[in-house]
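quick one
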Amino acid sequence: MNECLFCKIANKEIPSTIVYENDYVIAFEDISPEAPVHVLVIPKKHIASLNDINIENSVYIAKIFEAISIISREQGINETGYRIVSNCGKDAMQTVEHVHFHLLGKRSLKWPPG
Ligand code: AMP
Ligand code: ZN
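structure w/ adenosine monophosphate:
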């Protein structure tokens, strides 16, 4: 049985506030938002981390960035700007082992991150 939290969200076994979905990608609001817009964009296929992207599954990553272009427009942040973050592994504090891209916007974001 797949115990992955984000697979369960993708399969609608766990509720989330979905903002965008297609055959490859699902995007939903982060449960603990760090900005007025904080959406997580994930592949519907389980990919544990950025380290696991390869020629077999990289179409999902392309689809994620196509989706980000649509979602940023729908969320009204394509012109003001936004940040995409993907944490990989312990030093980056990845907490969910299913690849995800944070889409953050609608406020001024600091750089560099902590
Ligand atoms: P990361 O720390 O980069 O692995 O990001 C995991 C993100 O998932 C965090 O920002 C959490 O707030 C978010 N998160 C955890 N559980 C849920 C959930 N059930 N629904 C939506 N977002 C979640
Ligand atoms: Zn998963």
